[in-house]
Amino acid sequence: MSERGGGIHFPLGRPASPSGEAPALPPTSKRLIDPSRLERPLDSLRGVGRTRSAALAALGLRSLADLLERIPFRHENPVRLAKVAELRIGEEATVRATVKTIAVRPTRRRGLKVLEALVADESGTVRAVWYNQAYLADAFSNGPEVLLKGSLRRYGTLLSFVVTSHELLSSGEPSEGIHTLGLIPVYPASGDVSVRFIRSLLGSCRDEAQHVVDPLPSRVVASHRFPGRRDALLSSHFPASISEARASRKRLAFEELLLLQLALQKHRREEESDRPAVALPAPGTLAARFLRDLPFAPTGAQTRVMADVDRDLARAIPMRRLLQGDVGSGKTAVAAYSLVRAVEAGGQGAVMVPTEVLADQHAVRLGEQFGALGIRVALLKGSTRAAARRDTVRRLAAGEPMVVVGTHSLIQDQVAFGALRVVVVDEQHRFGVRQRAALFTPSGDDSWPHALHMTATPIPRTLCLTLYGDLDVSVIDELPPGRTPVLTRLFYDDNRDDLWSFVRARLDEGRQAFVVCPLIDDNVAVTAASASETFRSLTGGPLASYRLGLVHGRLKSEHKSEVMAAFSAGGLDALVTTTVIEVGVDVPNATVMVVEDAHRFGISQLHQLRGRVGRGAERGYCLIGADSAEGEARERLETFARTNDGFALAEADLRARGEGQVFGERQTGWGDLKVARVLRDQKILALARRTATSLLEGDPELSSPQNRLLADAAQVRFGGLTSWLDNV
Ligand code: ADP
Ligand code: MG
């Protein structure tokens, strides 16, 4: 066996055992299996030079294994193999014929050329035409035998066989018919690499599939009647029937999701065994007082999640809980409860939030709530003065029981905690991986903190199970009582005036409004300029007689805090702002949300913004201005206007933008799924999860002979993910 170890890439190329012995031959094959052969780079194939291999690499195709694992996204419908004389007008068919004459002609459309050939078999002759492929003329000039796929058309009195795909049979290609006969696989291609080229490569390395090794234990394969991995790969490309292609894809998706679930669950088990946390005693009088003092009765959902948290905190392993709840569902109360539990147990609690504005808000609110309970609340953000910061840092290091609220400055300056028990990450999706990681380190007493991640970007349950299989999930699926749903209206350029007269009417009733301007090109300066511009045009125009404030990322933090405070207190009628208020800000009297250039926002982001209004008993309004929204963008806005259900919108977003992008970071942290699609493969995912759990229960290390390949495969395929998770 060759020693080509570097960059080993399961499932195709992994040697069976660390000693490098070839795996046992399956009973059906007498040939030697050498998985390392699949690690050969693609330029080892005929017809792939340096340019081509670079273009293939850009598509993520580097080795033979990559190629075999690139499952087609569909197959063309099979067509009949017909004699020339049997061709029927309008019907797609393939003919096997010989080229008699060839010519290139210009057409009436300028620039469009037609390649024309007379082709014949023993039954007759037909005129074959190719549009815009004059460059093929040379290849056809010596009268070769060909397979042509296309359909017969009538133009006036002329009959033409319009060719959509062809093959030269004299070229000695081993896989005759791959472009013209049967179920023809279609792959994502690029300007530099055609579908046809990818297909040809696959055709020419079909034999290499004999080196594929199956990581699934035979018991699992048998119990689900799955095809073996080798057959599944081959027939997902070149199936005999659609049902065979489906069965193959299903098996490969199952395998991928099983490896993912194994990696996640194994990681979780290991983490639990070597990260001790302090088990908190049962809730006592302080927690009870906190609940009694809440200005409202918690909803059923809030109570349920607090119970989830209590159960987690009672264990000597760190809580790893993701709390999802639509905007306005009352996640803050659950967070506050968790923090009280930390302090009641004599420890510390920390809340990390993504913006200074939100840090201010939490510090003020928690300060009031916790002050009454005798709990100290400190604020740490970029603009905190040195003396105050030093004092807080000292108390935290000393393990003094207290709560700290902060932005990422909480982690940037290496604040050391003496006894951190509970960490809450609010709007967790706004933080980078490394930022979140920094808080999850042991305290001075060597214990790990319990962690509650909160997100208002609802993650569809399926995606959640796939990507967050290592976290426990709680959902607040019930809004506090008495909310009237926000009304959403779209305004395009023709009725812009109506938008502002509507806003004026609400302001005249004593309500307040947000006017949000989009982040432009991710450029803070340009965005700030556009917000300032909007502010000027409103003060000089539609909102001239009202008190307006302006907040954007370029302003000094004290100034921002002042403007926000004035707005909260009702001293301003409207606040012109960038997305700094996207998350978490809670001003019940603000009932109007105007979003300018809304087509620049994603659905989920718009939903976040809409969640800023309608938080009190008054009805909220979300007014969407989108002058240049067309096509897909307009559809998106209309979907958004139709429903207030954040989960439904998240699913819509997921479908519209593709799975890779919505929860991008978590996915790009380790690379995309190759075969499985979490929305489409929900049932397979559930099966993979169950299978992973039962495999690990029977063999926690996956060290038995029948599971060893599986353990290797999970490590090779998703080991990057788990080491990444170690830091989350
Ligand atoms: P989010 O989940 O978006 O963080 P918040 O925690 O900010 O939501 O809560 C939104 C608003 O609802 C706040 O004004 C909060 O005081 C109020 N609220 C939370 N829970 C309840 C409840 N059970 N009953 C009534 N109002 C509640
Ligand atoms: Mg919140």
Compile the SSE list and pairings.
Elements: H1 50-58, H2 64-69, E1 74-76, E2 80-82, E3 92-106, E4 113-121, E5 124-131, E6 145-155, E7 158-168, E8 184-186, H3 195-204, H4 218-223, H5 229-237, H6 242-274, H7 285-293, H8 300-313, E9 320-325, H9 331-344, E10 348-352, H10 356-371, E11 377-380, H11 386-397, E12 402-406, H12 409-412, E13 420-425, H13 433-439, E14 450-455, H14 461-467, E15 472-476, E16 487-491, H15 496-508, E17 512-516, H16 524-539, E18 548-551, H17 557-568, E19 574-577, E20 590-595, H18 603-610, E21 621-625, H19 631-642, H20 646-657, H21 659-662, H22 664-668, H23 682-698, H24 705-725
Parallel strand pairs: 2-3, 5-7, 9-14, 9-15, 10-12, 10-13, 11-12, 13-14, 16-21, 17-19, 17-20, 18-19, 20-21
Antiparallel strand pairs: 1-8, 3-4, 3-6, 4-5, 6-7
Helix pairs in contact: 5-6, 6-23, 6-24, 7-9, 8-9
The structure holds adenosine-5'-diphosphate (ADP) and magnesium ion.
Structure commentary:
By secondary structure, the protein is an alpha/beta fold. The chain has four domains: about 5-75 and about 205-240, no CATH class; about 80-180, OB fold (Dihydrolipoamide Acetyltransferase, E2P) (Beta Barrel); about 285-315 and about 330-455, 3-Layer(aba) Sandwich (Rossmann fold); about 485-645, P-loop containing nucleotide triphosphate hydrolases (Rossmann fold), CATH 3.40.50.300. Helix content is about 40%, strand content about 20%. The chain has 24 helices and 21 strands. The strands form four sheets. Strands 11-12-10-13-14-9-15 form a seven-stranded parallel beta sheet, sandwiched between helices. A six-stranded parallel beta sheet has the order 16-21-20-17-19-18, with helices on both faces. Strand 6 (about 145-155) and strand 7 (about 160-170) form a beta hairpin. Helix 6 (about 240-275) packs across helix 23 and helix 8 runs parallel beside helix 9. The longest helix is centred in the middle third of the chain and has 33 residues, at about 240-275. It is globular, with a radius of gyration of 32 Å. The two termini are about 40 Å apart. Mean pLDDT is about 85; it is low at about 1-30 and about 660-670. The chain binds adenosine-5'-diphosphate and magnesium ion (MG). The site of adenosine-5'-diphosphate (ADP) has 18 residues, from helix 9.
